[in-house]
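Sample 1 of the test manifest.
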Amino acid sequence: MTQAVNRQFYLAQRPSGLPTTDDVILRELPIPEPGVGEIVIRNLYMSLDPAIRGWMSDAPNYIEPIPVGSCVWATTIGRVVASNSPEFAIGDIALGMNGWEDYSLCAAEAASKIEDTMGLPLTNFLSILGSTGLTAYFGLLDIGKPQAGETLLVSGAAGAVGSLVGQIAKIIGCRVVGIAGGSQKCSWLLDECGFDEVIDYKTCGDLTAAIAEKCPDGVDIYWENVGGDMLDSVLLNLAHGARIPFCGWIATYNDAEQRPGPKNLWQLLAKSARMEGFLVLNYIPRFPEGIAAMAQWLLEGKLHHREHVVSGLENALDAFHMLFDGRNTGKLIINIGDMDD
Amino acid sequence: MTQAVNRQFYLAQRPSGLPTTDDVILRELPIPEPGVGEIVIRNLYMSLDPAIRGWMSDAPNYIEPIPVGSCVWATTIGRVVASNSPEFAIGDIALGMNGWEDYSLCAAEAASKIEDTMGLPLTNFLSILGSTGLTAYFGLLDIGKPQAGETLLVSGAAGAVGSLVGQIAKIIGCRVVGIAGGSQKCSWLLDECGFDEVIDYKTCGDLTAAIAEKCPDGVDIYWENVGGDMLDSVLLNLAHGARIPFCGWIATYNDAEQRPGPKNLWQLLAKSARMEGFLVLNYIPRFPEGIAAMAQWLLEGKLHHREHVVSGLENALDAFHMLFDGRNTGKLIINIGDMDD
């Protein structure tokens, strides 16, 4: 081990809006020791996701919020450096819900061992083969139920989840339209990811009209990533029987005040449409199926994805802000340590 | 025929809020003559439903709006008084989407003949065996998918649809909680309809807390009739995997300005819940199944329902207002004529 302390970001107080350096603070603690059935992981990579912002608030949520004073949570991949469990040996690679820190203490039963990387980089297990990819896979196939020939519209299309949703829908045979901000993102979606159409929400003018133009037969599946006014525009363009899976609303996560809901929700009735929330955690028993399918498409060259790796745990809070101002260009991952640390 | 004219309410202009006597005006026209394939019906009963308010507006809807200058639409039952179709003879009883008028001209193929009333009054075919009962039947069973032991919460519980939804859910084996306004309605739900619990929203104080108390395991199915703030309270009390079928929002139909949507819609995500709009028209091919099931439960005494019959076509507009201020005590029907007219 190259350092004698465990650097850790902890939640000092609940943020109002984007978390600041007063809310999330770096501190130094001793490196933990494993109790019975526990392991200590030297974290190598950490996944930063918009959902973490929700865990910082005490609004009703699908899990209890991060306690004030505790390490901020995140999924990490690391190397086992101490083990008090027969399940893990020193040097094993373990994945689990840990925290923004150099070293994590975790129950062996809560960690997954990655034994075969299939020749893929470890970071892929936090992105396309992790909750990001599995959110796209199960949410689209299980909740969206796409049929060949249907029109899929995806917001946050250049994001980690959105870009995979569009590409999986293309594999299924859908017509895929993405909404993204900026010409670079739009070009990537058209040229690399094979989207049929893109809408640049920064330059398109009236978004409702732009959707109507790009989706002349209506939207059969809307992958809802964003919330806010964008959802209202899409609601006016639904096809009969439309499905709206949703697993997060980036536009609203940092609102200090609760904003009003979509004005046009009544369109669900007019179009016999469905809006359905889901959590990737619901699919844990089916994760092996999803990982196998995504890995195969990836190895066959059918899925393009980007990882945006930021080096250094100390940069985690600044990097976290990228998720909300659109600066990241792919799944956001922090490189905390190296294999030989 | 006892009169030489056809009295008819027509849409003079699109209402803002509740339709007034400036919006919906009674006029006299000649009694129509049937063209080829058409029949003329002497209307006996007319169904007044909140959805008619939606058809008066030109906001995007599931059907084109009623044209300004045209007769206001409604489902009616009447006696055929002139026929230019081999499908109908004079004296047959016909049901169809007609209008607020004494005599309706309609295409024979768009009308249904009621050949066997099963000993039930004709008005039942506009209420429990009409779109009201079928909305409850298909919406609850097909969209709500109730399982024995689950908790169903229904708003507008003493209304025509809501009271049937609760009773069908009881037949399925659910625990049924109703929200209604006023002690009379609440007593009827408990004593006659067999609801397990009721919440009087006029006296309960904090509705969110009242729902939490009456639904301690959360709401598995919420039958959404009302919209507005009530939905926000229910969203905070959903069980994991909850379903929210909805087919109308009485609270919002007469809003001159669009009101904000539910603030707590994000709870659909937190609870992996589903909100799904539907129209009873989607189930037309299955209407015989629904009518047979509802008639059997009715004849077995398992369903209690009330019809609120107002006499006289001329009273239709005033009666229509009852739907929005809660004055009606059962399915609202206008008695336009008698069998011997």
